[in-house]
Amino acid sequence: MSAIADEHPEELRQVVDGLIAFADKEILPRHAANRDLLEDGRRVYTEDGRMSPPVVELIREVRIAASNAGYYQMCVPEALGGGGLGNEAYFAGWQALVHHCGPQNWLMLYAISHWAFGPSRLLEKVTDRARDEILEPLMSGQKGMCFGLSEPGAGSDASMIKTRAVPDGDGWVIEGRKIWTTNSPIADYCILFAVTDPERAAARKGGISAFLVPTDAPGFEVQRIVKMFGHIGGDEAELRFEGLRVEPWQLVGDLHQGFAMALYGVSLGRIYNSARSVGLGRWSLELALEYAKAREAFGKSISEYQGVTFPLASSAMELHAAHLMGMNATRLLDQGKPAIKELSMTKAYAVEIGVKAVDRAMQTFGAMGFTNEVGLTDAWQALRVINVADGSNEILRRTVIQRLLKGDIDL
Predict the structure, then answer these.
(1) 338-365 burial by CB neighbour count: b if 16+ within 10 A, else e?
(2) What is the mean pLDDT of the chain?
(3) 3-state SS record for 22-54
(4) From CA 377, how far away is CA 361, in angstroms rounded?
(5) How confident is the model over 249-291, as pLDDT tens digits?
(6) SS3 category, 310
(7) Would you say 155 and 188 are in contact if contact means Cβ atoms under 8 Å apart?
(8) Class of residue 105 by CB neighbours under 10 A (exposed 0-12, middle 13-18, buried 19+)
(9) Mean per-residue pLDDT for 208-212?
(10) CA dist., res. 151 & res. 161, Å (int)
C-alpha cells in the first residue's frame, strides 16, 4: 500500500519501474561478476589514485547500456536529443535507483546522466561545432565529463573564483586551479568556469564564462587526486591550467554570463543529492528492520525492544517527510517556479536525516554495522560528503532565512 496520496504520474512510475529492471539486468550482474575487482581498493585504483582502466571500462559499459535503453539521457532536454523528462523524474529516478541498488553497487551512479558527469540542460547553449563534435559521444555514453567550478579559495561562495580566461586573438588563454572536481580523473571533457571580466565579476554582475574543454588539451592537468576517508584513491581531483587555449566554439552560453549556468548546475546537484539521501536512508532503514526481526537477544527478537525500534520509527517519519519535500520542490520547479527556499530546505533536511538513518541502522546492527560486507559505512561516507556538496547545510539555511526575511513565508 502506498504511503503517498498523490504519487508520481503513471508514466513516470513506468519509467522508474523500467529503470529498476535495467539495474537488475545491467548493473547488479556486473557487480556480481566483478566483485573481486570492485571491492578491492588496490585494484579499483592505480598507484596515483585514479580509477584503474578495468573499472573505467565498466563505468563506460553502464553508461552505454543505459543510453541504449533510454535511461541515461531521460532527463536531457529534447532539444539535445534526450527524453525531456523534468526535475520530478530526476528526483524519482535517482531515489529509486539508489534505494534499490544500495551503496555497494555503485556503478548505478552512471545509469542516469548526472548533470556534472554527462549531458544535461547545461549544454543547451553550446555552439554548433561543439554540438557536432562533443554532444553525440556524451549522449551515447561513450564519453564523460566533469564540472570545474570550485577552487581552493572559492567553495560555498563560488563567485570568488580566481581562474582567468584572458583574451588572446579570437580566443582565450586560461590560467588557474580547480579543486573538488568530481569525475575529473576519468572525464573526457570539462565545463570550465573562468573570470572573463574581472570588474564585473568583482561587482557580482556577471563577468564569469563557461568553456567546454577536452581534458587532454595542452595546459589541462589533473594535478592530484583528492583522497578521503582513508581510501587509496578517489574520483575528486585538483586541476591546474597553464596556457590552456580555448577557441570561440568552446564557449558555452553567452560571454560573461556563465555564473547563472553554474547556479543551475548546483540546483540539479541539490535535487540529485536529496534523492540519494532519501534512497540511502530507505535502504539502510529496511536493512535494519530485517536485522531487528532476525536478531535475538535475551530470549527474544530485538524488534521487541523499544530502544531498538523507536529510533527506526523516527527515521521512517523523517524519510517520509524528506520524500514529500523532494516531490514538492521538483514539481514546483517543473511548473516554472524558482522554488529556491523549498529546494534549499529539501536538500538540507534530506541529507541530515539520511545520515541519521544510517547511523541508527548501524546502532541496530551493533558491531556488524561497521563491517565492510553490510555496506552501511559506504552509505554513511557518501551521505557525509553530500552534507557539504552543492551547498553545505549552513549555506542552505542562510538561503532559507534570506528568502523568509524577504517575504517568501509560504510553507
Answers:
(1) ebbbbbbbbbbbbbbbbbbbbbbbbebb
(2) 95
(3) HHHHHHHHHHHHCHHHHCCHHHHECCCCCECHH
(4) 10
(5) 999 999 999 998 888 888 999 999 999 999 999 999 999 999 9
(6) helix
(7) no
(8) buried
(9) 96
(10) 6
DSSP assignment letter at 79: G
DSSP E strands, 258-317: 296-297, 300-301
3-state SS record for 204-265: CCCCEEEEEEECCCCCEEEEEEECCCCCCCCCEEEEEEEEEEECHHHEECCCCEHHHHHHHH
Q: Which residue has the cell 521538483?
A: 330
Give SS3 for 146. Answer: strand
- Grid cell listed for 366: 551493533
Distance CA 191, CA 210 (A): 6
- C-alpha cell of residue 123: 549544454
Query: Which among 399, 311, 314, 312 is positioned nearest to 348, based on CA atoms?
Result: 399
CA atoms of 232 and 41, how far apart (whole Å): 7
Residue 162 has phi, psi (to 5 degrees) of: -110, -15
